[in-house]
Amino acid sequence: MTTNDYSLEIDSISKLYRVFKPQGHFLAQFALNAVKRLRGHAPAQRRPVREILALDNISFKVRTGESLGIIGPNGAGKSTLLKILSRVTFPTRGVVRGKGRLVPLLEAGAAFNKDLTARENIYLSGALFGISVSAIHCRMDSILEWAELERFADLPLGKFSSGMAIRLSFSIAVNLEPNIILADEILAVGDLRFRNRCEERIAEISKQGTTLLFVSHDMQAIRNITQRALFIVQGRLIDEGYPEEMIIAYEQYAAQQSRVRRLSRDEVMSRNEYTVILDPEITSSMREIKGIVSLNEDFWLKIPFQVNCAGLKYAVNADVYHRGIVVFGSRPEPFTPERSGLYFCWVKIPARLLVDDVYTANVSVFCFDDGHWHVAKLGNAISIPVSDPEDRFQKIREQGLSAPKHWVADPRFEVEYEFSGETNGPSETLQ
Question: Do residues 160 and 59 both lie within one domain?
């Protein structure tokens, strides 16, 4: 692929911020430095107390017409990267090469004047993007119509809600025939209908050759909109590839970080005088420990726990979650251990139940004593990444059929087709 096939080339970008210690009152310091200059002395150089590396040697290329998602935890450097690409700020090191008109959508109404009307702000935005007044005038009706703001065109923007402002921002961006759009959480303040319309419009302009860089914490939007994704952590590009692969990597990272925080903060919840819950594991049917499982195979959730009081009833519960919503739970019958010591509870998860995504499991151990149950809990006990080696949904999409977007379970149902005889309905009259 030649250089001309790329809209953006980012070569070894780094961004360093320096934090300085306050030097007292600004005017007093300014006067002191002025006196030093008059006496022929250079003002004292301030030294930073610490440095923050927001971006660390990031390189990637974006093909013309490609929709690229950028994901990662808060503080990863995603917004800083977009600000560098849109020239709001400049890199400490590295080079950015781009071609064509670039339209940034970094904040709702960031380039708007709240004292001007919606119509006047459209002209203002066009001027900022280098569009002539006559060209903006020709697109005015389509911009207002797409944003559904025809009735409010001559109302000051200060009276608009955040949702109305973001609709106007997006409508201006997609109707100015941009070559590159940089969008930072552009769908976060919109309702479901607006988000669906944005996704449809993005798909349209992508087919026309517009390049999109899309930062979002909404993984479903990343799935629906982007063709490729970058995974960034602490200013570093960890990996890049298909959106689903990067989402799984991100959710595994998030689950691990949550687990680390829980172990340091909520460890007391996982133990009491009756039991201690240890770290669960995922294993195959052959009891081999696995980091990722295939949706076509059975696997087991291995839950180790310590029994401190033999002769009492114990019960182990496991709840499997998807994005904070419980998918199913395991409630085995209580048992009465005869001896104290380490026990394992094995929970079988059947094949073809889950889809290719990342799940988490919460574990609880109950002990019945003094007329009621005493519980120890381990939240976010383990991350369960599930893969689909056949990529069945992709094959469905390639055939032109609609694939499920929001499934969290995919059981294999028995299906039969039955021929009931020829019909004499309207279909026979079709030529």
Answer: yes
State how far the Cα of 351 lies from the Cα of 294, in Å rounded to an integer. 8
Domain boundary among 224, 252, 280: 252
Select from 303, 309, 374 the least CA-distant residue to 340: 309
Evaluate whether 39 touches 195 at the Cβ level (below 8 Å).
no
Q: How many CA atoms are closer than 13 Å to the CA of 260, on its beta-carbon side?
A: 5
pLDDT tens-digit readout, 393-406? 767 766 767 667 66
Q: Is residue 178 scored above 60 in pLDDT?
A: yes
Walk across the sheet containing 67-71 and list its strands: 102-105, 180-184, 211-215, 67-71, 228-233, 236-241
Provide the pLDDT for residue 303: 92
Looking at the structure of the chain, the number of domains it has is 2
Are 230 and 304 members of one domain? Answer: no
Can you tell me whether residue 11 is helix, strand or coil?
Answer: strand
In the structure encoding, which two tokens stand for residue 133, read together?
Answer: 């007044």
* Structural domain span for residue 292: 271-387
Give per-residue pLDDT as tens, 90-135: 999 999 988 888 888 776 556 788 888 888 888 888 888 778 888 8
218 in the same domain as 311: no
Distances 194 to 73, 119, 183 between C-alpha atoms, Å: 25, 21, 15
Across residues 361-385, what is the average pLDDT? 90
Q: Which amino acid is at 417?
A: Y
* Cβ atoms 122, 136 nearer than 8 A: yes
Query: Residue 225's closest CA among 248, 203, 241, 208?
Result: 203
Distance from C-alpha of 160 to C-alpha of 171, rounded to nearest angstrom: 15
More reliable by pLDDT, 179 or 50: 179
Contact 319, 361 (CB under 8 A): yes
CATH number at 205 reads 3.40.50.300
* C-alpha span between 406 and 355 (Å, rounded): 10
pLDDT in tens, 46-69: 666 677 888 999 999 999 889 999
